[in-house]
Amino acid sequence: MGKQEIEKYLSKQAQKHIAEYRKHEQVIRRDWGGPNRLKRLCSPDMKERFEKAERMVQKAIDSGTAESIKGMVAMMERAFFALVTEVNERGYVYIQPNVRYYEFGSKNYLVVDHDHELENALERHGQEPNTILISMEQLFKFLPEEMADILKAVQELSPTAKFKSVEHK
């Protein structure tokens, strides 16, 4: 094997390890709303250790060496497990499939589709600090009727328009 072939093999191995890490991140996002939610729910010490592990894995990914990436991905797998274990021990639970987690500004939201789902969400997640539980039905009730007309007009002009913010003047 020549030097180029070895480098190509190592690069493929590095990409494989990075993909493995991204899969762990996706599972955490699907089941828990993402690492940010978990870091909010764990102890300050665990948060600090986890953030250090995140920096280390990013440094390994930036370096691009397959062996260091492999080691850091294995470390992050253990870090994810330790973080989830601690959050569970503190009484918090994963997010059910009908609940979605959002971070907007400095607020955290757990959102369900319908009002009748709120009771179950409140039972499971009501003790989470700095989190607002709300249903889409409630959100629509907050919207003035004119807002729906404005949304429809904007959508007709540009179906892919994305709002950065809405100000009432």
Write the layout of secondary structure elements.
Elements: H1 3-32, H2 35-41, H3 44-63, H4 66-89, E1 100-104, E2 107-112, H5 118-125, E3 131-135, H6 136-142, H7 145-157
Parallel strand pairs: 2-3
Antiparallel strand pairs: 1-2
Structural summary, described in words:
The chain is mainly α. It has two domains: 3-89, no CATH class; 100-157, no CATH class. 64% of the residues lie in helices and 9% in strands. The protein has seven helices and three strands; from the N terminus they run H-H-H-H-E-E-H-E-H-H. The protein has helices spanning 3-32, 35-41, 44-63, 66-89, 118-125, 136-142, 145-157; strands spanning 100-104, 107-112, 131-135. It has a three-stranded mixed beta sheet. Helix 3 packs antiparallel against helix 4. The longest helix is centred in the first third of the chain and has 30 residues, at 3-32. It is globular. The model has no long low-confidence stretch (mean pLDDT 87).
Shape: globular
Sheet-strand content, in percent, reads 5-15%
Poorly predicted sequence stretches spanning 5 or more consecutive residues: none
**What is the quaternary state of this protein?**
single chain
Largest sheet: 3 strands, mixed
State the distance separating the first and last CA atoms: 69 Å
Q: So how many helices?
A: 7
Mean pLDDT: 87
- Our count of domains comes out at 2
Structural category: mainly alpha
Task: Summarize the model shown.
The chain has 169 residues and is mainly alpha-helical. It is 64% helix and 9% strand. It folds into two domains: 3-89, no CATH class; 100-157, no CATH class.
